[in-house]
Amino acid sequence: MEKAGIILEGGAMRSMFSAGVLDFLLDSGIEIPNVLAVSAGAYSGMNYVSGQKGRVMDAVIRPLEKEKYMGVGTFLRKGTFFDMDLLFDTIPKHIAPFDFRSFSGSAKRFITSTVNCLTVEAVYFDEFADEDIFLKICRAANSLPFIARITEIGGVPMLDGGMADALPLGKALEEGWRKIVVVVTRNTGYRKKQRYFYLAMLRLVYRKYPQFVRMMKKRAGKYNRSLDLLKQLEKEGRAFILHPAEHIRLMNNEADADRLREYYRHGYERAEEKEEELREFLFEN
């Protein structure tokens, strides 16, 4: 199963669904060798690679019960919608320690992405010299326009990789993956719409990065074409899709801990429901 991998879509707090999926995979012993995590997918995918089942509860959900680390109040205090210092420094080092040693020694390969604001290329990272560098890259990979600051990696201004490629199927195909599991955090039938006010604000705030603004104009179309490609790969037997049930609507800015636990449980249960099909997809020729 060397030529198999899992793509984790982002979506901020919608990624609790992905965390549930991945914890089921750990419980059931389903080992997928390549993990390509976009944006907030990285905050779940890292735990799958390190083997830390349930860590998302201590790293994301329980801290939210003690301190509202996201929202307008956080933005006024920190200048970012999410408290990035808490999420990418204090929590993984002190509150819910991330096992970087197990992560580094894992047989699984972890890949995450940023976008170069100057060239608008998606930049993929799969080697991390130490925990500080890893967490800095993950911070950049989660830095959405407007609500997070640009992070410099090697002197290059970077933002959330999902801006360049939210469903990086092309990367998976380029890597030669024969079987691609995709955890989508949107419901079936979702199509991204162009938001013209958002684009107008981008032109104003990111005027230093004109190529980035031009790329963002094409983002909705690119995402929708990726969805079309995903459905085609599914028909060909090359992709397996896990997504929320139709009656469940996940919100990317959900701040209620109980609702986030529901997202997590739903992800776990959806993977459990699909276990037999998933095993057949992955392990049968």
How does this model look, in words?
It is a single chain. The chain contains 13 helices and eight strands. The relative contact order is 0.19. A hairpin with a 5-residue loop joins β3 (109-116) and β4 (122-125). The chain is globular, with a radius of gyration of 18 Å. Strands 1, 2, 3, 4, 5, 6, 7 and 8 form an eight-stranded mixed beta sheet that branches. It is α/β, with parallel strands linked by helices and 285 residues long.
Main attributes?
alpha/beta; 13 helices; single chain; about 280 residues
Low-confidence stretches: none
Secondary-structure-derived class: alpha/beta
Number of strands: 8
Overall, the morphology is: globular
Q: Quick check: average pLDDT?
A: 95
Helix content: 40-55%
Chart the SSEs and their pairings:
Blueprint: E1 4-8, H1 15-28, E2 34-37, H2 41-50, H3 55-66, H4 72-78, H5 84-95, H6 100-105, E3 109-116, E4 122-125, H7 131-141, E5 151-153, E6 156-160, H8 169-174, E7 179-183, H9 196-205, H10 210-217, H11 219-235, E8 239-242, H12 257-273, H13 275-283
Parallel strand pairs: 1-2, 1-7, 2-3, 7-8
Antiparallel strand pairs: 3-4, 3-6, 5-6
Helix pairs in contact: 1-2, 1-12, 3-12, 5-7
Q: What's the short version?
A:
With 285 residues, this protein is of the alpha/beta class. Helix content is 49%, strand content 13%.
